[in-house]
Amino acid sequence: MANYPEVMDKLVSLCKRRGFVFQSSEIYGGTGSVWDYGPLGVELKRNLQDRWWRAMVRQRDDIEGLDSAILMHPRVWEASGHVSGFVDPLVDCRNCKKRFRADDPKIKGTPGTPDGQCPACGMKGTLSAPRQFNLMFKTFMGPVEDSAATIYLRPETAQGTYVNFLNVQQSTRQRVPFGIAQIGKAFRNEITPGNFIFRTREFEQMEMQFFVEPGTDEKWFEYWKEERMKWHRGLGLAPDRLQFHEHGPTELAHYARAAFDVQFDFGGSLGFQEIEGIHNRGDFDLSQHQQFSGKKLEYFDHGGNKRYIPFVVETAVGPNRTLLALLVNGYREESVEGETEGRTVLGLSPALAPIKAGVFPLVKKDGMPEIAHKIADDLRSAFPVFYDDSGAIGRRYRRQDEIGTPFCITVDGESAAANDVTVRDRDSLKQERIGIDSLRDYIGTRISG
Ligand code: ATP
Asked: 160: Cβ below 6 Å to ligand 1?
């Protein structure tokens, strides 16, 4: 197996320097593990989300979109099992006050006994016995802070889909099998967030619930496993950095009959970690909501003249974690032949790169800036470009390499007469002369897909 290097620290610094990701409330010292997406980060995240939406909703006739609210009726979370079951075992150290997940491999000995040793301060016997800690954020709805007004920030988007199952099915007249997809924020009061944007307390999910007739669920589970792996490969993630991990009986969530994770190799000490979960949730969620709400959530199959509660195959992927995978996968430092200074490259797929082309006049005279401005203005209506006339041309190329821009267009001394420019490819470093009038098509074809 390839041993990929640790690049996280370098990425955190690149992301801040170039405007991909900033620490939240940084001027106040930051908020624990919460991050803001800067100008380039938001473009990259949107490209990723749009790609998912296109593949899962727009290009299929058997999946509908939905955007349900973050705040939901509190009974939803009792029915779903989150109030009682969405817990992690937590231990705290009486000496240094730090908190850990009880299954943290860094803990030596048994917490709650004299030989349990705190991994932070090293004291023995100061770790509490494990207790269950609910990961849902609680807040109050309306002006009264009593228990009747307690609500939760949703820890997953899926429940918003289940409670709307019949609304969507009846309004669209979809027939089982069909799916409902949504993209939205989720919140989990994680005990040990960290590794940059890998595990945060506020994050996004792109989840799709596929409703199927009981008995066909295993077939659909296999189908979605394969489809989702194909999608991740299509993002440009290296095939040898992707693998499935099957959940054993002790790992399965309370609702799941079967589960596979798509894992990506983040390199270094993090190694293979989940970026997407594919779950066979059976009829657990719809049955629970039917019972707790007292409202029938059955599907009537006209052809078969029967009623049943569909089974659900869920695909749940985090755009933040996948974005981190893209950055890790694409980051490389290399030397350039004939140059003393090396370069840092983000090898993002052209379809996902935040900026598609840099546009430069070779020098700031002889009409070159005017031509370059005109090209940039024209291309900007089709895709994001960046005009840059400051510093040596090599520097300008390197600034674009570092943010993953796949093409750099340079207007030089021949451009005015020949009506053409050079187009430099980020990865091969090859330069081709392309007619100015063909630029939009030339780049447009290369960034599609
Ligand atoms: P983990 O085991 O890493 O806590 P999970 O199995 O609880 O994740 P799911 O409930 O299956 O995660 O959520 C689906 C996806 O949502 C995950 O694969 C991940 O990409 C993303 N995700 C979950 N929790 C977080 C988090 N705290 N921060 C960022 N992304 C997250």
From this structure: no
Angstrom distance (rounded) from CA 188 to CA 256: 19
pTM (2 d.p.): 0.94
- Helix, strand, coil abundance in the chain, percent, nearest 5: 30, 30, 40
CB 262, CB 278: distance < 8 Å:
yes
Structure tokens at 259: 């589960």
Mark 191-204 as b/e (b = at least 16 C-beta within 10 Å): bebebbbbbbbbbb
- Index of the ligand 1 atom closest to the CA of residue 201: 27
Q: How far is the CA of 214 from the centre of ligand 1 (A)?
A: 27
Nearest CA to ligand 1 atom 13: 316
* CB contact at 8 A, 197 and 21: yes
Q: Which of 276, 441, 351 has its CA nearest to residue 51?
A: 351
Cβ-contact 240, 232 below 8 angstroms: no
Name the amino acid, one letter, at 53.
W
The per-residue pLDDT for range 34-66, each reduced to its tens digit, is 999 999 999 999 999 999 999 999 999 999 999
Taking each helix axis from N to C end, the angle separating 8-18 and 319-330, rounded to the nearest 10 degrees, works out to: 100
Burial class (CB in 10 A: 0-12, 13-18, 19+), 252: middle
DSSP string, 134-161: E---EEE-SS--SGGGEEEB-S-SHHHH
What single-letter amino acid sits at 381?
A: S
Element (H or E) spanning 208, and its range?
strand 202-212
Query: Is pLDDT of 251 > 90?
Result: no
Atom of ligand 1 nearest to the CA of 207: 14
E strands present in 6-98? 21-23, 35-37, 63-65, 87-92
